[in-house]
Amino acid sequence: MTTAAVPKARSRGDYAKIIGLIFGVLVLIGIIYGYITNPVTTTAVLASTLRQSTPLVLGALCGLIGERSGVINIGIEGQMLMAAFIAFLANVYTGNLFVAVLAGFATGAVLGAFLAFMSVTLKMDQIIGGTVINILALGLTSFFYQTGLTTQGKMQPIPLGPLADIPLIGPIFFDNPPITYTTLILVMLVHYVLFYTRWGLRTRAVGEHPSAADTVGINVFKIRYINVIIGGGIAGLAGAYLTLEAVGSFERAMTNGRGFVALAVMIFGKYTPFGAWGAALLFGFATALQTQLQFAGQLEIPHQFIGMLPYLLTIIVLAGFVGRTRVPSAVGKPYEKE
Amino acid sequence: MTTQTDSKANISQWLMVFWRSAAVPLVAVILALLVGAIILLISGANPLAAYSALAKGAFGTPIAFGRTLEKATPLILGGLAVAFAFKGGLFNIGGQGQLLVGAIVAAAVGFGIDGLPFIIHMPLALLVGSLAGAVYGAIPGALKAYTGAHEVITTIMLNFIAINLTDFMANGPWKDEGIVARTPAIAEAAAIPTWGNIPIGFFFAVVAALATWYLLYRTTIGYEIRTVGFNSNAAKYAGIGVSYTIILTMAISGFLAGMGGAIETLGVVGRYQPGFNAGLGFDGITIALLARTNPIGVIPAALLVGAMQAGSSQMQFDANVPFQIIDVIQALILFFVSADMIVRWIIRVKPEEGEQVTLSTSWG
Amino acid sequence: MNKTNRPIVLEAKGLTKRFPGVLANDNINLKLHQGEILAFLGENGAGKSTLMNMLYGLYTPTEGEIWIKGEKVEMSNPGDAIDRGVGMVHQHFQLVPVMTVAENVMLGSEITSGGGRLNMRKAIQNVRDLSEQYGLAVDPTAVIEDLPVGTQQRVEIIKALYRHADILILDEPTAVLTPQEANELFRIMNDLTAQNVSIIFITHKLKEVLSVADRIGVLRSGQMVGTAMPEDSTETSLAELMVGRNVILQVEKSPSKPKEPVLQIQNLHVRDDRGHASVEGVDLEVRAGEIVGIAGVEGNGQRELVEALTGLRHADSGKIIIDGREITHFNPRQITELGVAHIPEDREKHGLVMPYTLSDNMVLNKYFKAPYAKGVIMHHDKIDQNGQVLVKEYDVRPPNIHALAQNLSGGNKQKVIVAREFSTPTKLLVAAQPTRGIDVGSIEFIHKQIVAQRDQNVAVLVVSAELDEVLGLADRIAVMFDGRIVKILSAAEATRERVGLLMAGSEA
Question: What CA–CA distance (Å, rounded) separates A137 from A133?
Answer without folding.
Answer: 6
